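3-hydroxyisobutyryl-CoA hydrolase
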Amino acid sequence: MRFGAVARSALTPHPGVRLRGPRNAPDAKPPGIEPGFETAGIRSGDDAAKESAAVERGMSGGQQALQQGVAQRDVREPSAEPEIVFETRGEAGLITLTRPKALNALTLPMVEAMHRQLRAWAGDARVSRIVVRGSGGRAFCAGGDIRQIQALGKAGRHADVMAFWRGEYWLDAAVKSYPKPYIALIEGIVMGGGVGISLHGDVRVAAENYSFAMPETGIGFFPDVGATYALPRLPGYTGRYLALTGARIGAGDALAVGLATHAARAEDFETIIERLAGGGAIARAFDGLDAPGTETGPLVAERTLIDTCFSADTVTEVLARLDAAARDGSAFAGATAATIRTRSPTSLTIALAQMRRGADLSFAEAMLAEYRLCERVMRGHNFYEGVRAVIIDKDNRPAWQPATLDAVDAGAIEAAFGPLDGPEPLFDGSQGPHEASAAAEART
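Structure:
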C-alpha cells in the first residue's frame, strides 16, 4: 500500500515520541509506535574541545567528520524526554528530532515513528507539506547508533541489526516517494542517516553552519541511505570523491553540486516554518530573507583535479593519480590520498563499485543493492573492527582484513551485490514498519 492510500492510525505511541495536535484544530489521533531496541546517542562531552584536540593531533578533515559523525556515548537507560516530536502547524506537518545531546542520532523507535507519521500525514488532507528539522543547533542529524549496532552484531543478534537497517532504508524510500512536498531545514551536521532523511526530499535548506559528510569507509562500512543513487548523479566525479574520502563540505559546496537547494540563516528557520504553515508556494517562504554567506570550498576549487583523479576505474588508480598530482605540488591531492589510505580497502572497493553501478539504477534498485551489501558486511570483520578503533577504543588503528587494496577479492565484491536467499524487502515506498514482522519472518 502506498502512502496516499494509508489512513491515520490510532495506536498508543512509543514513550520516546511526542505528538502535538494542530494549532486551532481538534487534537489529531496519534499514529501507533511499536517498541524497538532502545539505543543511546552519539558523542558526549565538549564537542568543541574534542574537535580542537583532533586538529592538534593532525587529524584530517575526513577523520574529524568520521569521529564527529559516528562516535557514540555509552549505552544508557532510555530518557523520559521525547526523541522525536510531531506537530501540525496549519498546512505543515512538522517533525523535530529532539536528541540534541546525541546530535539527533536516529534510533529504531524514531525511525519507525517518523515512518508511521509520514503515512498518516500522507492521507491527511489538512497537511499539504512536510517540514523536518533537528534541535539544538549543532546538528540536523549525525546518523544512527553505530555503537549499539556493533554491540548487537558482536552478540550474534544479526536479525536485530538488520531490523535497524531495514527500517532506516524503508524510511529513506518513504521520503523519496512521498506524495507531498518534503522540506528539510538543515542546521549543523548532516551525516549518514541524517542524509537519508533529508537528501531525498524536495527542498534542502542549508544554514550557515551546514556540514555534510558520508564518512562510512572509515569504519569499515560503505556509503548507504541512498548514496548509491544520489552521489553518482552529482556533477562530474564529486560523488566519488565524497564516497571514498568521507570529506566534510559546507553550504557553499553543497549548493554548488545540488546537495542543498537553498541557503538560509538558522535564525530564520522559524519564520520559514510559519510561512510554510500558511500554505501557498514553497518558494515564497524564502522571500525577503537574507541568505548567509556561502563561500565554496575544495569541492568547487579542486573540481578539475577531483574529476581527473576520481574518474579512474579502480581505487588503486585513483591513488596513483592523486600521488602524481601531489608530486606536482598539489597539497590537496596529497592530503586526499593520505585520507583514503586510512580507509578500509574493502569499503573503498565497495564504494567505488557503488558509484559505478548507481548511475544506472533506480532508487529502489539502489536501496536494495545497499541492503544486500549491508547483510553481507554486517557478517564480516571490518565494520566491527572499524567501530572498535574509531568509536570504542579510539586508537584510530583499525586492523582491516585484508589490509591492502591489492588483496581485496574482486569476485567477493561482485558477489556482495547479488541477491539474498529468500524474499527481499522492497524499497519503493510501499513497505515500512507495518511489514517488519512479516519481512523478518521471511528472512529466518
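The beta strands are 17-20, 84-89, 92-97, 129-134, 139-141, 182-186, 189-191, 203-206, 211-213, 262-263.
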